[in-house]
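Morning run. Coffee first, then this:
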Amino acid sequence: MIVQVYEIQSPEEALMVAECGVDHIGGVILSEDELIIPGLAESVHVIREAGRKSSIIPLFADPDAIHRVIDYYRPEIIHFCDILNRGEGIEESAITAAFALQEGIRRRFPSIEIMRTIPIGPPGLGFHVPTLEIGQRLQAVSDWFLTDTLLVGGEIQPVKGHVGITGKICDWNVARELVKQSPIPVILAGGLSPENVAEGVRRTSPAGVDTCTATNLLDEWGQPIRFRKDPEKVRRFVEASRTIAAA
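And here it is:
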């Protein structure tokens, strides 16, 4: 069972989550105007030295900027999580652009693995998102899929134009269908915590699990702090994931 943790921006946290047993350790670049983040570059080095895989999510899709990111950081995985649908239908121009971007990366950087977030609606609302069609359209140019929750019904995504960090689980029935359909490994994400990850694995049988928001430190009002991990929560998440995988 692969365990993945995201929004690790410092070498100290990278080392901490690696020591907790995390396999894929991911960071985020928020803007193409600020591509060079020394702490993130050092984190990638620490992750590699620890024998883990580094992953980077760029929150932009300009091919030249993406290529500069890969050239500079040389992560094991480049991960895209932009929204590719409009309501219940495919956003055709977005799918075409995503396919071309990933195909271009495959040609230029054949050793880099590509992860693509596949959006899934919240529990009971999975039919509002064309999850399985998006997966079918992009599986040929992806090495990994990651499920994540796409809010529907007028709710606003935390990061405009991108799927993720809602802190809410996705429709696990749809996630299970994606796992069955996909010829490439699927990592289950979306609101996973030490408390619910075992049930998520039982319900969907993924290749791996991912956590972000639910393993963050909390502020004085009990709200998750972005880019700050709680070591105890990370350890418990890894333990719960590995325990259910061994069962």
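The chain has a mean pLDDT of 95. Good start to the day.
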